[in-house]
Amino acid sequence: MDNNLIASSSPHLRSKQTISSVMLDVLIALLPATLASIWFFRFSAVKLIVLAVVTAVVTEIICQKAMKRPVTVKDLSAVVTGLLLAFNIPASAPWWIPVVGSAFAIIIVKQLFGGLGHNFMNPALGARAMLLASWPVIMTNWVSPGADAVSTATPLAILSGEAADGTLPPLSDLLLGNIGGSLGETSAILLILGGIYLLYRGVINWRIPLAYIGTVAVLTLAFGVGFNDMLYHLFAGGLMLGAFYMATDYSSSPVTSLGQIIFAVGCGLLTVVIRLKGGYPEGVSYSILLMNLAAPLIDKYTRPKVFGEVKQSA
Amino acid sequence: MKRFTFRGGVHPPHFKKATEKLSVEKAKIPQVVTIPLQQHIGAPCEPLVKVGDKVKIGQKIGQANAFVSAPIHSSIAGTVKKIASFDSPTGSKVQCIVIESDGSNEVHEDVRAKGELHNLSKKEILEIIKEAGITGMGGAGFPTHVKLSPPPDKPIDTVIINGAECEPFLTADHRMMLEHPEKVVFGLKAIMKVLDVRKGFIGIEDNKPDAIKVMEEAVMNEPDIDVAPVRTKYPQGDEKRLINAITGREVPSGGLPMDVGLVVNNVGTAAAICDAIKTGMPVIERVVTISGSAINEPKNLLVRIGTSFKEVIEQCGGYKSDLGKLISGGPMMGFAQFTDEIPVIKGTSGILALNKKDAKIPDEQPCIRCGKCVSICPVNLEPLFIAKFSQKRLYDEAEKYHALDCIECGSCSFICPSKRKLLQSIRTGKREIISKRKKS
Questions:
Q1: What dihedral do alpha carbons A91, A96, A102, A105 form, nearest 10°?
Q2: CB contact at 8 A, B325 and B95
Q3: B304 - beta bridge partners?
Q4: Which residues of B touch A3 (CB under 8 A)?
Q5: Confidence band (pLDDT; 50, 70, 90) for A310?
Q6: Is there a contact between B375 and B314 (Cβ–Cβ < 8 Å)?
Q7: What is the value of pTM for the model shown?
Q8: Is A6 on the interface with B (CB under 8 A)?
Q9: Distance CA A135, CA A101 (A)
Q10: Which residue from A60, A170, A250, B362 puts its CA 20 to 30 A from B331's CA?
Q11: Which residues in chain B touch residue A251, judged by CB atoms under 8 angstroms apart?
């Protein structure tokens, strides 16, 4: 017998899931919505998505080389960040918007804080907030889907009265995605489909999406918005994208079960307050960013009760 | 069918197909056995024989005066050749008695039937169990007579026989239940008599429907004994998880099952008790599952204590060419070995040989805070934080996060998508915390 036996601490069996398999699942989940955005917004969608993804990946390589760290683009997390950022950009945006956004997401939000797992906020959302603050006109120049893209208002803008001349599109258009909005937030049904895939694959759990969407539904009704308008709040805008893909970002959300629910309810509460009481028709990205900042605190105060702990003290 | 379960846990692949349908075969009686004088938790035994002595099968060759200990018996008949330190599967060198067979297979005269269960008093049964050197056969190796002697302020009302066998690959308990259900039931009845308990359960994971059926038939005429099917989920066979699943009781943190009125014993332990009473034979052999991707012919073998792993594996067609790791026990909690020149002991439930691919230690990637380890931890710990504190040598912080409550089941390391060595770090932290406590 040779002396080359590997001796290591138990367990000697590991699950098949890896970071790259998790990220690949997220990409698979986002694929239908990606294809839909290309269908609706044609070449401008392709251009923005490719630029955002390529910039994210290249920036990550440069960053990690410069910082003399192992290059980890193979884990696909930069691809996910780039794609999610593209989903948050209007189809009319110029080419440099995704480039600046992705670079900001990777350098400032992700790598400077220590890379994957250490970012305290969702990189794509952080970049979106930066873009929105820096170029508010470009970032809210919504166009209608189709080849002859004309300027239009988002359903939520119409609902809030910000866009006075607009008429609300039918709900079916919201579900399919045939509405004005950012690239990836238009088709609610495809985003939900991808979300179900992620739940099925065990990549995310039900707590954050369900608690988030549920809170928005309950609170919009409680604030006196009618049932029909409540549906618009659920299916228009970034709620589905945010609830399934952004708020569930591992590093910037709590790890405890109770913490995840508190986090999601907080996201829902802030979203509704911003949308109904604030001057801004969308509220998802800022809500998630604000709750991202609270995640470590939530973790600290929601530590699970250890098995057998109660009875000992009793 | 009502199925019991606990909170948390993981679903590793079972890998039991290779051996679950194979009857237990008797392994060849070895020419030489190396019998460690400590195969249990507690005081090591002192040798009762010296080099050159003739010994017979079942003869007591090691004993300790301490209460928490278990005597050691010879598993073959022959001559004592050496008494010296050798590697043992628990990871350290242990004093062992080496016996060379004389081929006679003569059984020692002390080995004789102890009479009927109803004629034996509690004290007598306890003494038989103690003298037979019976320890927890599931792997931990805690002396059984100690478990069955709770202090008077801890009344016991229920006994559970652990047939969960939640470790992947292992089928030793499964086969024991299928082939000798009567021994398991007899052992359980003996334990119930010792503890004066009315209620007994046999907990079996539902991936062994045949064992559930056989055991249900075996307890048909035993109104006090029920078979409790439990959901297949690791670590269902951890005694505190099993208690929680079947009775709903929660063993207090740092406590023992007896704190909630329970005693749990393994299927193999129950069968050993049966043998000790019916035939008088002490623990000189046990069922071992030999399996894994680098074993040519996986088997369930009845192996004499002290047989070397090497000899056992040779009887299973030997290794495939690409052996990478040798494990004593199951893949989740077993010990990796650096040699196969180690003896089978009372707690050796399995011998696994993994090929190089399965043995490869995956590269660690950064923690992405996915929280999976938190959601599956059966004791509700936060492994990611404890491991981080431990790596940063912040042992006080690790203790605040209840590091000492960790049962070392390995579910966190199993589930981690970043392949972090969570349990390994937590173990380091636990050791530091305990040694610090001892100092102060």
A1: -110
A2: no
A3: B285
A4: 338-339
A5: low
A6: no
A7: 0.91
A8: yes
A9: 11
A10: A250
A11: 368-369
